[in-house]
Amino acid sequence: MNDIPPTARVMQVLMGVMNSAAVSAIARLGVPDHLHSGPKTVEELAHAVGAKPELLFRLMRATAGLGILTQRPDGRWEQTPMSDVLRSDATETLRHFACLIADDWHVRALGSLDETVRTGEQATNRIYGMPVFAYFEKDRKSAENFDRAMTSFSTVEAPAIAKAYDFSGIHSLTDIGGGHGLFLATILERYPDMTGTLFELPQVVHSLAGGPLERFKNRVRVLAGDMFSSVPHGADAYAATAGTAGW
After folding, report:
1. Of all residues in the chain, what percent carry a pLDDT higher than 70?
2. Are 100 and 146 in contact (CB under 8 A)?
3. For residue 176, what are the β-bridge partners?
4. How confident is the model over 206-233, as pLDDT tens digits?
5. Contacts of 8 (CB under 8 A, 6+ apart)
6. What values do phi and psi take at 233, rounded to 5?
7. Which pLDDT tens digit goes with each residue over 196-207?
8. Do residues 86 and 142 touch, judged by C-beta distance below 8 A?
9. Distance, CA of 211 to CA of 198 (rounded, Å)
10. Is 120 exposed, middle or buried (0-12, 13-18, 19+ CB in 10 A)?
């Protein structure tokens, strides 16, 4: 690393946004989902995802340089371990987070990070005239991407946290802003004597049916509210998701 000139090292960092955009595009198009059944030509993939073959080829070649997708000697494309986690139904999926990265509100918020640092004002307040969760009430597609992205985080983090942290002295756990409840469900499965509370926004609570907490419904209560105003009292311990103050 020390042999690389500072300009080249900074350029690597700056070009990361283009790499991120390429990976997000692959995930949004659903290419990894279509490759799950086996190798395919770029023409087959283009037909399946509704893209122009020559442009899809260039996009796939760019992501192959990052370890996402690989091209066989016969010209067909196949999955790699990195593209496999971009499948919608992967056990530990990052597809929805990859989709979130390229959502317009997210791109605009990150693009004005300097202004957020100058003023301390949330980016969505400045850009859209409302906090991020109020914006989600108006843009349901972005809200769904966000909720799914947070759940995808839990598919990666929850098993590791449950294994690493000893929850045995906790009889009641409240998850603040716990999304669809995957993290809470993971902990409840490991500790059968524990009860849980999921505290989320009303629009999220209304979409929980059939989700991860369904099989724990006798041990879980679900409460709707705004964590920035107040949180439920009385639990032995509280868990909270990452904040969104910068948005």
Report:
1. 97
2. yes
3. 199, 240
4. 888 888 999 999 999 999 998 888 999 9
5. none
6. -105, 165
7. 999 998 888 888
8. no
9. 12
10. exposed
Residue 230, both tokens:
């107040």
Q: What is the pLDDT of residue 244?
A: 46
The 10 Å Cβ neighbour count of residue 136 is 22
pLDDT tens, 53-73? 999 999 999 999 999 999 999
Radius of gyration of the chain, Cα coordinates, nearest whole angstrom: 21
The full set of domains in the chain, from first to last, is 6-91 (1.10.10.10), 104-138 (no CATH), 165-240 (3.40.50.150)
223-226 contact pairs (CB < 8 A, 24+): 223/197, 223/198, 223/199, 224/199, 224/200, 225/199, 225/200, 225/201, 226/133, 226/201
